Amino acid sequence: ITQDFFIYAKGKRNTLQVGLDILNVGNLLNKNWGHKQYYNTNAPLALVQNAYSQGGTGIQNKPVYRFMRNGSEVLRETFRSDNSLSSTYYMQFSLRYIFN
Question: For the whole prediction, is pTM greater than 0.70?
């Protein structure tokens, strides 16, 4: 949004321009919109032991997997919210003086 104000100085018409920029307008309208998300992991399963480490080659010796952990908890969510400036709205105010 910009607004021009005309100022006459020494017989010349100069312009004072006032501006307001709003970034991530969706988040300004609704707090649930405009959030950036990251995926937790692209490989949610970890190999604990495979058939070769169990010492066998038969069908009864199957590999064992477990879900990846976030500290002591098992990952249950695919995505996590990014709590940085890119996930919030912000405004920028500007002044510009244009000489003629």
Answer: no
The residue behind tokens 């098992």 is 74
Q: What are the tens digits of pLDDT across the range 4-59?
A: 999 999 899 999 999 999 999 989 999 888 888 888 777 778 788 776 655 555 55
CA-based angle 67:48:62, to the nearest 5?
Answer: 105
Residue 27: how many other CB atoms lie within 10 Å: 19
- Taking the C-alpha atoms of residue 34 and residue 58, their distance in angstroms, rounded to an integer, is 52
Q: Where are the beta strands (DSSP E) in the chain?
A: 2-9, 12-23, 37-39, 45-49, 64-67, 69-70, 73-74, 79-81, 90-98
Which among 27, 8, 24 is positioned nearest to 16, based on CA atoms? Answer: 8
